Amino acid sequence: MSAENQQERLISSDWIVGFVEGEGCFSVGFIKQPDRSYKKGYKTGIQVWHEFAITQGASSLNALKKIKKFFKVGNIYINKRYDNHTEHLYRYVVRKREDLLKVVIPFFKSHKMHTQKKEQFERFVKTFEMVMKGNHLSNEGLIKIIKIAENMNVKKDRSELIRILREHMPNIE
């Protein structure tokens, strides 16, 4: 197989799916914005954001560049490390809602994953669709989004997001 054919195989849809299942992450985050409640997108005092990311060490930066070229959206950021690690980390990140809506979500809907990442993606999409419908603009809708998101990653303390929300809005159940 020629080097050119190997490059074509490297950036195939199946390769992207496998790479993301092993190294990717679909995240939903929440940022307190109580001083912006006068703005339409911050009525609850909480901003909801979505992120698709893949993290690799510096020695695998080329893989992230190929993924960025494949999707034609997102950016690559460096996370410099000065501790006992031997290389810096790089993250390919897509946060822009339009790029998630038109590129990332359709790709993974048509190229199915087969691991636990599939469930993470489904929750990501569900919360994304709720935000696109404006559900995050009411306390009730925001709570539903948080409850879905808090179960996305097994590493998270499942009650942590609700605890933070209760501190911000004490009437939350």
TrEMBL record:
Coiled coil: none
InterPro entries per record: Homing_endonucl (IPR027434), LAGLIDADG_dom (IPR004860), LAGLIDADG_Endonuclease (IPR051289)
Pfam families named among the record's database cross-references: LAGLIDADG_1 (PF00961)
Record-given protein name: LAGLIDADG homing endonuclease
Keyword Hydrolase in annotation: yes
Signal peptide: none
Transmembrane segments: none
The organism's place on the tree of life at top rank: Bacteria
